[in-house]
Design goal:
This protein is mainly alpha-helical. The protein is built from 7 helices and no strands. This is Tryptophan transporter TrpP. It holds the Pfam family TrpP.
Length: about 180
């Protein structure tokens, strides 16, 4: 992982953290923009090292800014497992699907996976304020739709940048 890759990942996660912190929730849901930017960081540089570092970093940053009572450890667990899940999705879909559709699928499935992992770990570690099924239906699914919409808009903006388009299309960040 070279310096350019680390800076790109750091900038994406920093933007996600800032937006995650300042964007208010809607109807009790808060779309996880840090999660969205973690997906983008892994997509732009799909190496195992970047995936692991992005997951750990996003988990720690998310733990520092969580509004869920005692949600620090569940946030770290969920981001690490979600980073690995998204990494596998990216490797599976590599160059088989249009990049815009690919980020939409990755964002939708990644957000659902993240929400289920977060709620499951929170259930076992600290408890939940409502049954897990209700939280998945009322929070995770709507959030996954919002994250998908937002990630596709952000991705389209990034994709217009020539060097980013080349990296994403080739699936290799070390160009």
């Amino acid at each position: 992982m070279n310096t350019k890759d680390m800076i790109t990942t750091s900038l994406l996660l920093a933007m996600g953290l800032v937006l995650h912190t300042i964007v208010p929730g809607v109807l009790g849901m808060k779309f996880d923009l840090l999660l969205t930017f973690m997906f983008l960081a892994i997509l732009i540089n799909p190496s195992f090292k970047n995936m692991f570092l992005s997951g750990v970093t996003a988990g720690v940053l998310s733990a520092l800014t969580t509004t869920f009572p005692a949600g620090q450890l569940p946030n770290i667990i969920d981001k690490i497992f979600t980073a690995f899940f998204v990494f596998l999705l990216i490797k599976f879909m590599k160059e088989k699907i249009n990049p815009i559709i690919r980020i939409s699928i990755i964002s939708f499935l990644g957000t659902i996976f993240s929400g289920v992992i977060f709620l499951t770990s929170a259930l076992f570690l600290v408890g939940l304020p409502a049954p897990i099924e209700i939280l998945i239906i009322s929070v995770v699914l709507p959030t996954s739709f919002m994250n998908t919409f937002i990630s596709s808009i952000i991705f389209k903006s990034l994709y217009r940048i020539g060097p980013i388009r080349k990296i994403i299309s080739s699936g290799n960040a070390s160009s």
